[in-house]
Each structure stands twice: as C-alpha cells, then as structure tokens.
Design brief:
The protein is an alpha+beta fold. It contains eleven helices and 18 strands.
Amino acid sequence: MNYGGYAAADFAADASFQAWVLHDRDKAAFWAAWQSAHPEKESELQEARAMVLAFRFRSNEVSMEEMHAVKDQIDNLLNDAVIKKNNGPLRSRWLYVLGAAVVAACVVLLAVIWYGTGSAVPEKIIVQTGFGETKTVQLPDGSVVQLNANSSITYPARWQQDKVRTVTLNGEAYFNVSKSPAGLHPKFRVLMPQVTIEVKGTAFNVYNRHDNVKVLLEEGKIVVNDSLHMQPGDRMLFTPGAHQRLLADAAQLTAWKQHRLVYRDESLINVAQQLEDIYGYHIQFRNKRMEGLLFTGAGPAADPAILLKAMATVHQLKMTQNNSVIIFE
C-alpha cells in the first residue's frame, strides 16, 4: 500500500492504521517504521490518531438527537460541491464512503432502538479524557469520579428514582459514591463488559483495559458480579471467566490520583503497556528478553520521560524516540 499521498482523513479510514492506533501489536512494527521513514507526515498521522480515538469513544452511547445531527452533517458534507472539488479524488472518495457509512449506521441504530423499545432512548452523557489527561466529574447524585487518562464514563443525563444509578466505565477511574441520595435509587452500579460492581456508599478504584479488570476497595462494601463480596483493603483481578486476589500494592494502584507513576518489581512489558494506555506511546523492545526485566521506580505523571530514561538506565538499554514511537535495544 502506498500511503505517501494520504491525508489525515485517509489514514483514519485505513483499517491497518486504525488497528495500530488501538494497540494491535501485529501492526506496530510496520507503522513505526513507516512513521520513522516519513517525518513529513507526522502532523497528518497525529490528526488521524485523534480522529480514530474520537470515533472509538463515541461509538457506544449516542442519543437520538446526536444521531439526527450526525446524519444532517453528513448530508450537508456530501452535498457540498466546494469540499468535493477542493479535496481531490482520494479525499472526496473517503468523505463519501465515510458519510454513507455513518448515515447507514444511524439508520440501523434508529431502527434497532425503535424496534427494541418503541421510543427514544434516554439521553446519555459521555465524559472522556485524552492521553496524559485526568478529570474529576461530579455525577447527578453527588458521587465523584476521578477519571484517569485515556478513559471514559457514560451515564444517563436524567436519573430517576425507580432506576438503579449506573455508570459505564472504559479505562480507569476512582469512585466515591454517595450513599442513598434523597430522591434516587439506593443502588449504584459500575458496568463493564465482563464485570458489574454494585455499590452501597463506598470508595474504590477500577481499572478496565485489555480484558483485565482490577478492583481496589478502600472504604465501604461492594459486590462484584452479584456474588463476590469485597471488604476494605481487598484487591482483586478479574479476567474472562476467572478471578484472583491481586498482589499489587494499594498505593501503586491509586498513585495516578496524586499524579504519580509508581512501579514495584513490574516487568518492562507491563510498564510499557501502561505508558501506551496513558500517553499513546508505541513502545517496542528489540529483544524479547527485555520484556521480562523487572523495574522499580516512580516519577511525576506530567513527565513520563523521567520513567522512560530510568528504565533504560537501570537495565543499561539504549532508548531512541521518534515522536510517539519509542524503541529499547
């Protein structure tokens, strides 16, 4: 494939590029090499990455009003002769394909919603963070959620007394849940694909990435998947079809709240995965043996370069960086 003539929109529409952005390691070597060989394309690549991530975050929960708005925007885009004329055949073809796909998706979603419920779905609110960014969110019931980098939560805009309070999590967050707020349901649930946490006034940290869910309970009581009762201080790891106690230090699991990165006897491959999740890096090890080397260290979340240099220094590795691509050898 000749990517030399691609603009940001073309990269964002390419399946291989999308897989690389979403951390498909099979695509990492090709795109890292291509990026290094084409520094003149860096701005287009960064713009395309942002587009892919935006589509990913917005793909699950969209209100009826938003779907109508997207359809109107795409219709206007396809009817805009000036845009079609000025962007050339490749870009205009991508815009047409994207527009048709989004319109078709909107129609399908509307049909499914109408068939399944017979009425409009409740409006949802989505809060998300970018790479290296954290946010604090106050929910309608007074509960507070601290959202780690590259994460998102989704919850109803209007909470009703007869409906369990629910928040869907993708990524990592720390919850401080209000107990039985006046006029709202006493139950509070955090929803993830394979794990559901039921809460009754408590404080806990949840990590949900790569089919792994790590739960640390600091205060109160929670029930996981309607069967596992956790007590303060408990740390659990949930994987598809199984769970086990987590040996990680509690302070390490919640260090991100204090804007710190803390690792104790962690393999370099696990450290690399977290840095990729939080900052959008693409980290490669030239030698497979390096991935299992252990690392202990800490640094400010605002400056991950300190940790990267420490990893290289401790194990006497050579580190080279080209924008978001980092290679250890």
